[in-house]
Amino acid sequence: MDGADAARIEAKAAAFAPPSSLREDGRIDLVGLSRAELEALLVEAGMERFRARQVFHWIYFRGVTDFGRMSSIARPAQARLAEKFVIGRPGTVRDERSADGTRKWLLRFGDGQEAETVYIPGTDAEDARGAVCISSQVGCTLTCRFCHTGTQPLVRNLGSGEIIGQFMAARDAYGEWPTPQSEARLLSNIVLMGMGEPLYNFEHVAAAMRLAMDAEGIALSRRRITLSTSGVVPMMDRCGAELGVNLAVSLHAVNDALRDRLVPLNRKYPIAELIAACRRYPGASNARRITFEYVMLKGVNDSEADARALVRLIAGLPAKVNLIPFNPWPGAPFETSGEGAIRRFAAIVQDGGYAAPVRAPRGRDILAACGQLRTDSQRRRKSAA
Length: 385
Ligand code: SAH
Ligand code: SF4
What we know:
Distance between the termini: 36 Å
CATH architecture of the largest domain: Alpha-Beta Barrel
CATH superfamily of the largest domain: Aldolase class I
Helix content: 25-40%
Strand order of the largest sheet: 3-4-5-6-9-10-11-12-13
Low-confidence stretches: none
Order of helices and strands: HEHHHEEEEEEEHEHEHEHHEHEH
Bound molecules: S-adenosyl-L-homocysteine, iron/sulfur cluster
Mean pLDDT: 93
């Protein structure tokens, strides 16, 4: 049944497909193509295969956007490439910095649609690496009650180039591409926790993450990538089998009546099915724990009884629980739990044997914190397109 469900989800995703990589000027944007596709295209254009491999390296290892800077490629070949291809980046419409160092970009893609990307610097002195929080969709089909993105209807899925392009644009902004003298240090983690439900756009998310993990390019380990889902059960299996990245699950409630209300997707995939999918997730070992995200909503899901039920629910699962104080947004129908309630909740979960860090809100002042992202993009009417 799950297989049929997964096929249905993929078919639905096609209705929100991103634009093709063929641009109006007739050139093809190479960013987002798989390595095999890119090499095949360049070979077809008359390039030797080992040169095509070098181009991949220039694009994804060195972050070069100008064929003229590919010094291992002969000048005439550079010119031929530039006639047919581009190495695209999303445009930056707005670039904001929070007092706490968090940075948010409003990015615009080729067709004018917009999404937000956030860089959250590390706070750990031992490991200063931060994370780039990437969007997978413009808007979201789901309507989790506490989430600002959920108030923006789904406009369309982002393509693989637009997804990996967010990370590449962030590296551009910090000059964080490795050079012969230095390696990229700061921007070496990806969290798929921006706008949208990544498992409703699995094909493009997976293609983008394969590019992020390719050893000849950005070369991030799958341990440095975390995908957050609101609980699209049939696609969790595929995510585990095909990508094997870290999984974060937006739980937020421990009984179906409440979760139905907070995360309406729960009506389709209730808690028992969700937890079963977590237990099946490959590599769910102590070294690779599943993260449960739990937004702390005052008087809604933050009681001591909720905390005890949470411990019972995930018993035996290698997991940690990220407690996220609710981040407010204009018109939001909730309040953040009080400090005491959060402390008591965390203590019960810890006594139950689970790490329960409270996620410090980052970038609230620029609406860059979890669940605060939203853009003005709207779905185009078919007739206008
Ligand atoms: N769609 C995916 C990933 C994006 S949201 C998902 O739902 O998992 C990243 C995390 O922020 C999720 O756990 C989400 O539930 C949480 N979140 C959403 N709105 C929030 C808010 N206002 N305050 C705190 N966390 C929020
Ligand atoms: Fe969509 Fe995630 Fe927000 Fe829910 S929490 S509306 S799934 S982005």
